[in-house]
Amino acid sequence: MAVFVLDKQKRPLMPCSEKRARLLRERGRAVVHKRYPFTIRLKDRVEGDTQPLRLGIDPGSKTTGLALVREDAEDRHVLCLFELVHRGFQIRKALEQRRAFRRRRRRQNLRYRAPRFNNRTRPKGWLAPSLRHRVDTITAWVNRLTRLAPVTAISQELVRFDTQKLDNPEISGVEYQQGSLLGYEVREYLLEKWGRECAYCGDTDTPLDVEHVVPRAHGGSHRVSNLTLACHACNQGKGNGTLDTFFTTDKGLKKRLKANNLSADARQERVQCELKRPLRDASAVNATRWVLFGALKATGLPVTAGSGGRTKYNRQRLGIPKTHALDAACVGPMDALHHWQVPTLTIKATGRGSYQRTRLTRHGFPRGYLMRQKQVHGFQTGDMVKAIVPTGKKAGIHTGRVAVRKTGSFNIQTEQGAVQGISHKQCLLIQRGDGYGYRLTSSIQPKGGAGQTVA
Fold first, then answer.
1. Do residues 4 and 39 make contact, with C-beta atoms less than 8 angstroms apart?
2. Distance CA 199, CA 271 (A)
3. Among 378, 376, 377, 382, CA closest to 354
4. Residue 256 · residue 201 · CB < 8 Å
């Protein structure tokens, strides 16, 4: 993986190889400027010749691929690969929890409060916080990489997912305007679909509830393919659990199935056959693609858009494995891609902590309190540290993201797992926390080669 280089005035120069960066440091001509991504700063040089570099972007709902390539006519030479892991689901979950806490406080022993939602308007171009996070994070890393390398152009995969064709590849014509509920209400549709019986135990002479097969707490949606009918006992027994856990552990369900002479495996298979894959990821990409395109154009660099089909064609023609980072390197027109077997730096968005200093129960009542200060002995949660433990059960060198405690006994999240109870006296700061976690993975070898984590 190439090393970013800055001149004496912190202006970007052409990236160099790891060997050259090591020689520059040994000769005293450069110092380490940043650890992730690894950047050196020259002490005896101002400006220099550069070559055209292109930053490829493959936007995704959960992971976005970034690739920095050097262009030589129609050929591309990969310098760096990145995979940016978003935290949109965590943001949505946190907002839902905050909304529930506020609702409890407002409704408990308080006078009636008139609704205000009709008076609130959303500005043009508004996006949900979980979607805005994806656009802002990608834009932030584009700006960061342009400060570390002389990027001259940007390529974005501007893909649009046809959600109806993902459900039914044969759909065409007027069928686009006729969904699965054409002529039905939801409950009547489910009653006819499931034969007016409980989808789990098969009971018929009992009131039936509309039930989410994949619970909302586990990412389930309100799509009709995720809804079914269940008796009150099955609905309460399943709760927020998964389908497999419900059919294997619920004793009441087993008794009801035995009374109705039904097989648990057959009933579970029937429910699973009616499920369809969720379209949340495709919807997130569709909602943010043009907003991201506008944000990239605002950087002042020329932005070109490529289709997903062209990216797939380039990748298959050159025999390149499918990863988010390599897809970003294959965006747009190109003849060849060289040196793509470089390690990938995985960048996981972790946030910068929380203003909330009180931990609450599921009902919104306090259950614990956090310390008011964020720094302990000069360290803060999220910093990258290197701990050297000479003796004991935890002897060795541990490098990773630190979680501080008021007692001075820290936890370090390494690539091999969490190491608990490390004294602050044994920790050495590598890089201040910037809201991201970093992990370097080895290159993917062609034709079945396995990538592995490297230090």
1. yes
2. 7
3. 382
4. yes
Q: Which residues contact 272 (CB under 8 A, 6 or more apart)?
A: 243
Distance, CA of 12 to CA of 10 (rounded, Å): 7
> If you count DSSP H runs as helices and E runs as strands, how many of each does the chain have, helices first?
12, 23
Closest CA to 438 of 36, 63, 2: 36
**25-81: pLDDT as tens digits:** 999 999 999 999 999 999 988 888 889 899 999 998 899 999 999 998 888 999 999
* DSSP notation for 228-275: EEEEHHHHHHHTT--HHHHHHH-HHHHHHHHHTT--HHHHHHHHHHH-
Closest CA to 385 of 105, 376, 449: 376
Amino acid at 291: V
Pairing state between β 53-58 and 151-157: parallel
* Residue with token string 């960048």: 347
Here the tokens at position 180 are: 């699965």
CA distances from 289 to 131, 136, 224, 285, 307 (A): 10, 12, 26, 6, 12
Assess contact for 326 and 334: CB atoms under 8 A. Answer: no
* pLDDT tens column, 299-354: 999 999 988 888 988 999 999 999 999 999 999 888 999 999 999 999 999 988 88
Q: Which two tokens stand for residue 299?
A: 């950087």
Show the tokens assigned to 417.
């797992």
Q: For residue 339, give both structure tokens.
A: 């040196």
Q: How far apart are the first and last CA of the chain?
A: 13
Give yes or no for a contact between 55 and 66, defined as CB atoms under 8 angstroms apart. Answer: yes
Containing H/E element for 291? helix 280-297
